[in-house]
Amino acid sequence: MSREIVNAICRTFPGAEVSDPWGGGHDAWKVGGKMFACIGAAMPGVSVKTDSVETAQMLIDAGVGVKAPYFHRSWVNLPWSTSEDELRYRLAASYRLVRSSLTKKAQAKLALFE
């Protein structure tokens, strides 16, 4: 996995946009202005949102990821060694979670996502 692969995957999600909100080389992927994935400038890997603190802890305990520094406990950081299949799944799950939290009006403006 690499920054390029993460960005290529996230770019395919309807309405996804990337920015560097803190400067210094972060890639923060957002939908509807809300972040669903972030590649840090220094920490290797990508941080994604999970549906709960418990899910994040389960992924950490299973060795899938580590605690995402500077984020809420419901976020995990997936290391660059994560398989591409696992990466795609976790990015899509994070995107769906954040997308579902948008207003109905904002969701209606986005193309369908399977």
Topology:
Blueprint: H1 3-11, E1 16-19, E2 27-31, E3 34-39, E4 46-49, H2 53-61, E5 66-67, E6 75-78, H3 84-100, H4 104-108
Antiparallel strand pairs: 1-2, 2-3, 3-4, 4-6, 5-6
Helix pairs in contact: 1-3
Keywords:
4 helices, alpha+beta, 6-stranded antiparallel sheet, 114 residues, 6 strands
Structure description:
- With 114 residues, this protein is of the alpha+beta class.
- It has helices spanning 3-11, 53-61, 84-100, 104-108, and strands spanning 16-19, 27-31, 34-39, 46-49, 66-67, 75-78.
- It has a 6-stranded antiparallel β-sheet, covered by helices on one side.
- The model has no long low-confidence stretch (mean pLDDT 94).
- The chain has 4 helices and 6 strands; from the N terminus they run αββββαββαα.
- The chain is globular.
- A hairpin with a 7-residue loop joins β1 (16-19) and β2.
- It starts with a helix and ends in a 6-residue tail after the last helix.
Number of β-strand runs: 6
Written as H for each helix and E for each strand, in order along the chain, the element string is: HEEEEHEEHH
- Based on secondary structure, the structural category is alpha+beta
What's the shape? globular
